[in-house]
Write a structure and sequence with these properties.
Layout: H1 10-38, E1 44-45, H2 54-61, E2 66-73, E3 83-87, E4 93-94, E5 99-105, E6 111-113, H3 122-132, E7 135-142, E8 150-155, E9 158-159, E10 165-167, E11 171-177, H4 195-204, E12 208-214, E13 223-229, E14 242-249, H5 255-265, H6 272-279
Parallel strand pairs: 2-5, 7-11, 12-14
Antiparallel strand pairs: 1-4, 3-5, 6-10, 8-9, 8-11, 13-14
Length: about 300
């Protein structure tokens, strides 16, 4: 029983009370400091950094966020040094001091070797240029016995030899053969196709892009072809014909309704043979490239 005599002493309870009070104070201080460190309930809207120069952004927000560059790319037509992607996304709820990851447009463009496209088919040439990060600027059709064969490749107005080093994203003019018996080609129906694919799809069909008109103010990712001139209901046209395109945002325009009206109004679409040619069993609207083999002749 002698071991528990301290329980009868007033001093024990005073010390116990002091210990409990110290524990409470320590826990309270710990929560206050933790709340301050984590900035609990203090969130900010992430600003939109897209399109701004990364140096200016870092200077303006260096006290608010920690910026980490994860990659640099060179898309054609974008301002060097501008931010094209950010994480967190704009308007996200974030805490001050968090990491912000971003991708910028390279200030020095990547360079590639010009491939040899001569004697390839148009389809093969398009694929080869894409693999190198180059683009077709124009298709120039000329009298030549092999239809859709590449006669020559030009860069900045002059023939360019294979292996020449040029900037990635550069535009190449292709001289293409018409063939012994040059025939007009049907204009493919591109209604509803993304703006990013428009130029490539026209080139795959042996056509050129003349002008583009955007009727809705919206991001490019939502822009779709709404009208073509000449259009798919027009008579067949010579290879290399220039096509003017109009675009609408698929968030503001009903493309299904547009296609229904097109089928009703244009009698050419009601002809079963032409409908099958333009749309195919697999539907050209879903995959133009796979259903327009009739437009290309790869065998020279």
């Amino acid at each position: 029983m002698g071991h528990f005599q301290f329980l009868k002493q007033k001093k024990f309870y005073v010390n116990l009370l002091i210990i409990l009070l110290l524990c409470i104070v320590l826990f309270w201080l710990a929560f206050i400091l933790l709340d301050k460190y984590t900035r609990h309930d203090k969130v900010y809207n992430m600003p939109n950094l897209i399109g701004r120069n990364y140096k200016e952004v870092q200077k303006e927000y260096s006290r608010d966020f920690h910026f980490i560059l994860i990659d640099s790319v060179y898309p054609k037509g974008q301002e060097p040094g501008s931010i094209i992607q950010q994480d967190p996304l704009p308007d996200s709820k974030v805490k001050k001091g968090r990491n912000v990851y971003y991708i910028i447009v390279a200030e020095n463009p990547e360079q590639v070797e010009m491939p040899n496209l001569k004697n390839l088919s148009l389809r093969q040439a398009i694929g080869t240029l894409e693999s190198k990060g180059l683009e077709i600027e124009w298709l120039q059709f000329e009298n030549y016995f092999a239809k859709n064969a590449i006669i020559d490749q030009l860069y900045q107005g002059s023939s360019i030899e294979p292996g020449t080093i040029i900037n990635k994203g550069s535009g190449i003019v292709l001289r293409v053969g018409k063939g012994d018996k040059a025939k007009n080609i049907a204009v493919p129906n591109l209604i509803g196709k993304p703006a990013s694919d428009a130029k490539r799809l026209l080139h795959m069909a042996g056509l050129n892009l003349k002008e583009q008109f955007f009727e809705d103010s919206d991001s490019l990712e939502y822009q779709r072809i709404s009208k073509m001139m000449p259009g798919p209901s027009s008579p067949s046209v010579p290879a290399g014909t220039e096509i003017t395109l109009w675009f609408r945002s698929n968030r503001k325009f009903n493309f299904d309704k547009q296609m229904d009206e097109l089928l009703k109004e244009d009698s050419i679409f009601n002809h079963p043979v032409i409908v099958d040619t333009l749309f195919g069993n697999d539907t050209i609207v879903n995959d133009l490239i796979e259903t327009t083999d009739y437009e290309y002749e790869d065998d020279f």
